Amino acid sequence: MVYDVTIIGGGPAGLYAAFQAGLYGLKAQLLEASPTLGGKVVTYSERVIHDIGGQPSISGHQLIQNLQEQAQLYPLPIRTATLVTDVSYDATAAIYNVQTAETTYQTKALVLAIGGGMVRHKTWPLLAEQTYTNVSYVPQNPAAYREQSVLLVGPGYNLMALAPHLIATAKAVHWIVAKRPFATEAEEQDFLTTYPQIDYQVQPILSYQQANGQLTAVTLANQQTVTVDTVVASFGYRRSLDTHTDWQLTPDQLATPLVQPIGQQVGAKIGVSLIANAFQEGTVAMATIAQQLHPTEKAPMVTTHNQDFDRINEAYWTVE
Questions:
Q1: Which of the pair, 123 or 204, is modelled with greater confidence?
Q2: Which CATH number fits domain 2-120+237-317: 3.50.30.10, 3.50.50.60, 3.30.1360.120, 3.90.190.20?
Q3: Which CATH entry fits the domain spanning 123-233: 3.50.50.60, 3.40.309.10, 1.25.40.10, 1.10.287.40?
Q4: How far is CA 306 from CA 35, 53, 290, 303, 312, in A?
Q5: pTM score
Q6: Domain FAD/NAD(P)-binding, which positions (predicted)?
Q7: pLDDT per residue as tens digits for the range 113-140
């Protein structure tokens, strides 16, 4: 199969570009190197974003969920854990060959939504490479922890924001850090005074217990044992800056309307870095590619009058 366009990167820019590809009737796919979609937003998924037009307040988690749902209004493949290792151009066939560890895809055009590179969470050193089903590095909505004993591990500022919101839903909230995350003792004391329900301790975790694939308890340096249902760990993240400069593409093969960089490309531009900018760039990129591939076809109708959305619109206005 030869795709009209392959979108490389599954952050906000890539996901919205995928929706636009469907809107323009392009045969598209999206490739994301990480196991999860969202790009850098997954590192602050529980934080609230306020600078997206029409969305005065939305969490990073909800934004990515919405963008994924929007992209999948059209039947395009979204492939996670798919690292693009190389891209080359076949001038005879006018095709880009997109190479991954598993296979090579052929595509007529590219949208590079690689942003700052692949984002990976730093793992909890105590666990080494071991994984457990109840240990996560991406916080969920507080409702997901209802009536659970939640252990927050690490000094991440994400946990500082998450912990107070768990009080209303979790059975117990334990925040254990090896080093104080607060800038001053006064800030720490203010936090403890405001949220006395949180079991906050500055104690190294010496060991842990596990059963049936889950982490069940931890033992602190003071010999206290904390029994848990769920663990959220936050130790920062690493960013891999491997970009298209490593691919077998010449500058001329990149500088074409059929290769569209969007979003926050490393070293590509300096300016205001807003998710809203990436949405506009994704729209322009797909309009440009569609015009190059299908110059005689009309631009799609706006979504309010587009027949692609008749079924959704009918369901939206149906009163039960």
A1: 204
A2: 3.50.50.60
A3: 3.50.50.60
A4: 33, 22, 17, 5, 11
A5: 0.78
A6: 3-243
A7: 987 666 677 889 999 889 999 999 878 8
